[in-house]
Specification:
163 residues; Elongation Factor Tu (Ef-tu), domain 3; mainly beta
Length: 163
């Protein structure tokens, strides 16, 4: 396989300075404000994004050091295949969150409902389009009946090494 190279296009600024402060999903960060500081050379690419109320933020889980194919996810006490979870210890430590876009000033996106660790590198931003990105769901796998509890669950250090 060809080695892929990604470069950060910016950095995420949030009030979450430690892993233990973070919610595990954006629904747990309801009302929390942050900003995404895009590198100046990418500012032109933000044109027209302000027409969307929500964006998908793809980012690097920069505090993970290795991956595991079986993990105990936040909402469970059993080992699960990593691809059946949203755990950050993945072969490619890429995370995503859907956040509310409040405004854009130059190269800074002001967002809310965020669950991301401060100083996390941004890989990409895409507009969230409900008709395309929110299909009707028939099954929630092992998370059946647990998704509402995610709103109140905070992170812990099981997946990260704090420096």
């Amino acid at each position: 396989m060809k080695l892929l190279n990604f470069q950060a296009i910016g950095v995420i600024k949030t009030p979450f300075k430690t892993i233990g402060e973070m919610p595990i999903q954006p629904s747990g960060g309801k009302g929390v404000e942050g900003r995404i500081e895009i590198l100046a050379q990418y500012t032109e690419g933000l044109e027209d994004l302000d027409g969307f109320s929500h964006i998908i933020v793809l980012y690097h889980f920069h505090q993970t050091r290795k991956y595991e194919l079986k993990v105990i996810p936040f909402m469970d006490d059993k080992l699960r295949g990593v691809f059946a979870t949203r755990a950050p210890k993945r072969p490619n430590p890429i995370g995503f969150s859907v956040v509310r876009l409040n405004k854009i000033e130059n190269n800074i996106l002001f967002v809310q409902d965020i669950d991301i660790l401060n100083d996390t590198p941004v890989l990409d931003i895409k507009p969230f389009i409900p008709d395309v990105d929110s299909p009707e769901v028939d099954k929630l796998g092992w998370l059946e009946g647990l998704s509402d509890k995610m709103k109140h669950k905070k992170s812990d250090n099981r997946f990260y090494h704090e420096e």
